[in-house]
Amino acid sequence: LRVLALDNVRIDPLQALRFEDVLDCILGLKAVEEITLCNYLGIVGGIAPSPRRRLHSLPKLKTLRLEEHPSTIRALLSHLSIPVEANIQLLASSLSERWGNPPPSEAFTAFLPESSEGLPILRQVNVVNVICARDEKIAEIVGSIGGLDVPGRISLGMDKKAFSADNQGPSIEELLFKRMVQSLRVIFPDTSHVTSLYLHGPLDAIAHTTWTPILYQFPRVRRMILRDGSPGFPIIEALMTSSPADGSPLCPRLEEFDLQGSAWDASVLNAIARCLEWRVDNDARHPLSRLTMRLFAVGSPWSLSFLTYFRKEYARYADAVDVDVDYSFCRAMP
């Protein structure tokens, strides 16, 4: 059997297939290349291999897609050894809300077994994406080897509707995004291989003192992409922090910096210029080879002289500067 697909059946939890039966079936597959389980298993708690039990290898597996309760996914992965080149998609089932979701603080780590031995990709990713955008239904952490089109990818996704936030406190995007970036070191035990970091979410909801230890985990990042619809950028302030190890700026090998945001004003643009200047003055090992900025002007359009000034400022700290401004949200075109 090369393909096992039990997909899109929204059965009652009381009629779900027994975990042990499905597990025995999978353990008997020697040549399986694709496994899909979607809403077929009930909630599982406390099932894990004994310390003496060998993980079951699926050497030919190319695709693993699990849409089940996080505890069920965790239990299943605790028994399996997945090839590093496989594409793995883990998504909390739409039925999980009925069974109870983990709290936001454990939302993504709840998928994974205690040991990463059976998921070697977690220690080898070099591209990490964290996506918790206000206009996206799914919050997702993605790690890949080489890029999205190269075999070897793992994604962990949660439907944001599964969580609720205090009306007087942070939004669910703010709360969840903070937990997502804080859990990266737990999910990916070795981040020394990561050369590309993509962050799309409410960046301003996280204080620079929180960003500092997060960025310290990525000493070899060469490309950083930031997407945020808010004007605040505490992460920019965190990038003006010295590493406790050798005094160099955090992410000392940063070469490509790509930013996108709206409602920015001169204070934010000046903060970015100060950050780049500080990094050059404090001996970042590599000056920027490219700075890319896509800005959405809000209210009155910016003058040509305003943009010209900042382009010249940024050109002092990057070999190539590309600043593009979208005026579609302005009251009038420049």
Q: What structural keywords apply?
A:
14 strands, twelve-stranded mixed β-sheet, alpha/beta, 23% helix, 334 residues, 9 helices
Radius of gyration equals 22 Å
Widest sheet: strand ordering: 1-2-4-6-9-8-7-10-11-12-13-14
Low-confidence stretches at least 5 residues in length (pLDDT < 50)? 46-52
What share of the residues lie within helices? 10-25%
> If you average the pLDDT, what whole number results?
84
Query: What structural class do the secondary elements suggest?
Result: alpha/beta
First-last Cα distance: 63 Å
In total, how many beta strands? 14
Largest sheet: 12 strands, mixed
Q: Give the SSE order as H and E letters.
A: EHEEEHEEHEEEHHEHEHEHEHE
Q: Note the overall shape.
A: elongated
Query: What's the total helix number?
Result: 9
Residue share in β-strands = 15-25%
Question: Can you describe what's shown?
Answer:
This protein has 334 residues and is an alpha/beta fold. The chain has nine helices and 14 strands. It has helices spanning 19-27, 70-77, 96-99, 172-182, 184-187, 208-216, 234-238, 266-281, 304-315; strands spanning 3-6, 34-38, 56-57, 63-68, 80-81, 87-92, 127-131, 138-144, 153-159, 196-200, 223-227, 256-262, 288-296, 318-326. The strands form two sheets. Strands 1-2-4-6-9-8-7-10-11-12-13-14 form a twelve-stranded mixed sheet, covered by helices on one side.
